[in-house]
Amino acid sequence: MSKGVGQEIKIEESSASGADQFQKLNAATINFELAPEVSDGLRRLAEQQARISKGFADNIPLIPEFDTKIVVPDALQRLMSAIPRLELPNWSGISAEFTLGMENFARVTSQLTLDIDLAKQAMFGQAFQQMALVERRAKRLEHSGWLPHYTTPFNIIDECEDDSELLRQKIGGYYFAEWVSVRSKLTEHILQYNIDQESKETFLEALDAHEAGLFRCVCRVLFPEVERLSRIELLGNALPSKASQKDLRGVAGDLTMSETEPGGRFALDLYRKLEKHLYANVESTTLIQYEQDSVPNRHAALHGLVAYRTAQNSLNTIIMTDYIFQVIHAAKLSVAASISPTSP
Fold first, then answer.
1. Least confidently predicted of 105-109, 137-141, 296-300
2. With contact defined as beta carbons under 8 Å apart, do 135 and 265 qualify?
3. Entry pTM
């Protein structure tokens, strides 16, 4: 019920649809008298509402009456009861287990890191020990006057420690006592090298001379043979301008320390002897130096400046010749590999 100015406006209400309500509102009797202009305004408003209600009446939904109690259908209740109840985990227990797992992981990781560090130390420690052993053997061998070779009795080097004279005698005794085995190894290697037959036969004759005690013959036979083979293999049989074997020394310097035997530190010692000593010119001021060196010098031997008459002189010449034959063999293999056709 609404009150006008001394008048009443009666609007019947119901729970009917919104469209019916608007229609009844449009048909409601308005029983009051107002000023003409106010009356005209209200009439126009009523007419406008009637037009609006006519256009949208069919689309206005029912105005529901809400009840505070929500009724769940039986079908939905059965569906909900069929769904397993989700049991939430015990987060406090999971957190404790996770913390314990992380602590165990950290402990295992720490132990693993420690084990790796210890392994590295052991590995590098063994490597350094081996390097130190090789260096020690090389120095002792050099001081004894012997060249390194794959027939060298390295255990004797360790036994003699720093006694150079004792080591010189013991290695000499070993080569004398074990000559058959030593010669067999030398022959086996020489026959496998990629050098011509003349060089192989000359080398075997030098072994015969050494075995017969003809020590002076060995260096006087092998030095010319080395020059012959180097001229053929490295210079295409052209005559060299000098006897310094520059090309041979250059080829040896290009090789790695694993391409000759023994390799590593001992290969370096043999190369240094070839580079600095074997083909050096002997002067009157340096003659005593070459007389005291048990490794023959080509200039001193072939020009009669030094008499290389001992078994040690002879064996050192054999060892250096073996090394040079290895150098030529390795150089030929390298050249062959560089010009071989590559597979598609």
1. 105-109
2. yes
3. 0.64
